[in-house]
Specification:
457 residues; alpha/beta; five-stranded parallel beta sheet; 20 helices; 12% strand
Length: 457
C-alpha cells in the first residue's frame, strides 16, 4: 500500500495497532483522538484515506462525513464502530462512507479494505442527512448485534433500502422481521410516505386491494406473515401486484414458515413467491447468535433505566443462565424477560435466582445443540455456512472469510477444552494436539477470557 491515512479513534490501543500495521504496509499515518484535529488535517489537504470511529469525545464520526466530502470530494472514509446496530450501518451507508466495519474488526480484513480504498478513486458524493422517523431516530429498535450473521444482515439491509426490489424477510417468531421491514422504509427515500401493514381482512372484498394501494400512495406495503394467507388472499395479492402502475409502492413481506417448502407442497402460489422474493433477508434466531444475548440484555436494561425504572445490572451467574437458555420466543421473549427482571428484582444487581424464577415459568425450545441429533459435525458446519452465504442475498461475503470462520470454530473449541481440563493449559494443549506456546498465543489472539476455572499455568 502507498498513501497517507488519517486515523481517528478515542481508543489508544486501536490507534497504536492501526498505526503500526499501516506503517508496516508502507503507509504514512496520522492518528488522533479528536474529530476537530481530524477535520483540520482534512481541510489542510492531508490524507488519502480516513479511518474513523463513530463515538468520539468531541462528536460523531458519521456526522463528519458530509463535512469531509465537502472539504475533500472523493476522499474515502472507512467507518469503524462498536455501536453494532442496524442504524449505524444504515447511517454510514446514507452518509456515503466508503466502507463500514463493526468492532471488534478483523485487522487483515481492514487492511485489505484500506488497500482497495486507496486504489479506488471515488466520485464526489452528494451527501444528505436523512430525516428519520421518530422510531428510527430514537435508536430503540432491538436490532443490535456484533455477530457475523447480524452484521451481514445490516449490510444487506443497507444495500437494498433504496432499491425498488421486493423484499421477503424470513425468520422465527420474535426475531424482529417486522422491525427490519420498518427500518428499511424509515431509512429509505420513501420514508415521508405511508407504511401500510396488510392483514387478510384488508384484502377481502372486490375493492380491498385497490383500497390498500390507495392508502400506500407510493410508500411501502408490508404483507405480514404472508405464508398464513389462504389461496383466495394469495390470488388477490397477485392481481394487485400485476395491476400496479406508475408510482407503485415498495413491496415487502414477512414469513415465519418455510415458503420454499410450501411451494413444494403446492400450498403457496409460485407466481406470488417470485413476485415477493426479489431479495430474501433471513433473520437468525437468538440460538444462532448466542454472543449477541448479553448485548441485547444490556440494551433492554438501559432502556428500562431511561424509562425511569432505575439502574440494573446482571450478575455473572445470571448472565450465564440467560446465555444458556434456548429463547424460543427470540428477541421479543428476551425483552419481556428483562422487563420482568427489572420490576421483580430486589436490588440493582439481578442474580441467578431472579433469572431462574422468571424463566422457570416460560416455555423452552430444544437445547442450543438440539434439533439435529445424529448430525455429523461437517454437516452442521456446512448448514451454518450455507445460511451465512444466504444472508448476503446473492452477494459474496466480505473478504477474509477463512480467518473469520476459523476463529469462530477455534474459540469455542479451546474454551470447551480448557473447561474439560480444569484450566490446565498443559493438559489442554495435549488434548488438542498442539504446542503449549501455540495454545497460549491462541488464547491471547482470540481474546479468550481466563476465568477462575481457567487459570494460566
Amino acid at each position: 500500500m502507498d498513501g497517507t491515512i488519517l486515523v481517528a479513534d478515542d481508543d489508544r490501543t486501536i490507534r497504536t495497532v492501526l498505526t503500526q500495521a499501516l506503517t508496516r504496509a508502507g503507509c504514512k499515518v496520522h492518528a488522533t483522538s479528536s474529530l476537530v484535529t481530524l477535520m483540520r488535517w482534512v481541510e489542510e489537504g492531508k490524507g488519502d484515506l480516513v479511518i474513523s470511529d463513530v463515538v468520539m469525545p468531541d462528536g460523531n464520526g458519521i456526522e463528519q462525513l458530509p463535512k469531509i466530502a465537502q472539504a475533500r470530494p472523493g476522499l474515502p472514509v472507512i467507518v469503524i464502530s462498536a455501536q453494532n446496530t442496524i442504524m449505524t450501518a444504515i447511517q454510514a451507508t446514507e452518509a456515503e462512507a466508503y466502507d463500514y466495519l463493526p468492532k471488534p474488526f478483523d485487522l487483515p480484513d481492514l487492511m485489505k479494505r484500506a488497500s482497495r480504498a486507496l486504489e479506488t478513486k471515488r466520485r464526489a458524493p452528494a451527501p444528505r442527512t436523512p430525516e428519520m422517523s421518530d422510531a428510527a431516530a430514537g435508536g430503540d429498535l432491538p436490532l443490535v448485534g456484533r455477530t457475523q450473521a447480524m452484521q451481514a444482515l445490516y449490510r444487506l439491509v443497507a444495500r437494498v433500502m433504496n432499491t425498488a426490489l421486493p423484499v421477503l424477510i424470513t425468520g422465527e417468531s420474535g426475531t424482529g422481521k417486522s422491525l427490519i421491514a420498518r427500518a428499511i422504509h424509515d431509512f429509505s427515500d420513501r420514508r415521508a410516505r405511508p407504511f401500510v401493514t396488510v392483514t387478510p381482512s384488508d384484502l377481502a372484498g372486490m375493492d380491498g386491494p385497490d383500497a390498500v394501494l390507495s392508502r400506500a400512495r407510493g410508500g411501502a406495503i408490508l404483507f405480514d406473515e404472508v405464508g398464513d394467507l389462504d389461496a383466495e388472499a394469495q390470488l388477490r395479492i397477485v392481481r394487485m401486484l400485476d395491476a400496479m402502475g406508475d408510482h407503485a409502492p415498495r413491496i415487502m413481506a414477512t414469513s415465519q414458515g418455510d415458503l420454499a417448502q410450501r411451494l413444494e407442497e403446492h400450498s403457496f402460489r409460485e407466481d406470488l413467491y417470485y413476485r415477493l422474493a426479489g431479495v430474501t433477508i433471513a433473520v437468525p434466531s437468538l440460538r444462532e447468535r448466542v454472543e449477541d444475548i448479553p448485548l441485547l440484555a444490556e440494551h433492554f436494561l438501559l432502556r428500562a433505566e431511561r424509562d425511569g425504572l432505575g439502574p440494573r445490572r446482571l450478575a455473572p451467574q445470571a448472565l450465564e443462565v440467560i446465555r444458556a437458555y434456548s429463547w424460543p420466543g427470540n428477541v421479543r421473549q428476551l425483552e419481556n424477560a428483562m422487563q420482568r427482571l427489572v420490576v421483580t428484582s430486589n436490588g440493582e444487581e439481578i442474580g441467578r435466582g431472579d433469572v431462574e424464577l422468571v424463566l422457570g415459568g416460560q416455555p423452552m425450545a430444544e437445547p442450543l445443540r438440539g434439533g439435529h441429533e445424529g448430525e455429523k459435525l461437517s454437516a452442521s458446519v456446512e448448514r451454518h455456512l450455507k445460511r451465512y452465504f444466504d444472508l448476503h442475498g446473492g452477494q459474496l461475503p466480505p473478504i477474509g472469510l477463512y480467518q473469520r470462520i476459523l476463529k469462530e470454530i477455534e474459540t469455542p473449541l479451546i474454551e470447551i477444552s480448557l473447561d474439560a481440563t480444569g484450566g490446565n493449559q498443559a493438559k489442554c494443549a495435549d488434548l488438542l494436539g498442539i504446542n503449549r506456546n501455540t495454545l497460549r498465543k491462541k488464547i491471547t489472539d482470540l481474546d479468550i477470557r481466563v476465568t477462575r476455572r481457567r487459570k494460566l499455568m
